[in-house]
Design goal:
mainly beta; 9% helix; 1 helix
């Protein structure tokens, strides 16, 4: 069984997204003060 975990962090000026699929991890992070709504979805 392959499991998937999605983590989204927008609590600080840094905006980050991570996805764990089985044994592989994909992540994106960007310093984006007050621009999280524009950055999270494309990540």
């Amino acid at each position: 069984m392959t499991y998937k975990i999605l983590a989204i962090d927008t609590a600080t000026e840094n905006c980050s997204v991570a996805l764990l699929v089985g044994d592989k991890t994909y992540s994106r992070s960007e310093l984006a003060p007050r621009d999280h709504t524009k950055k999270v979805l494309p990540m």
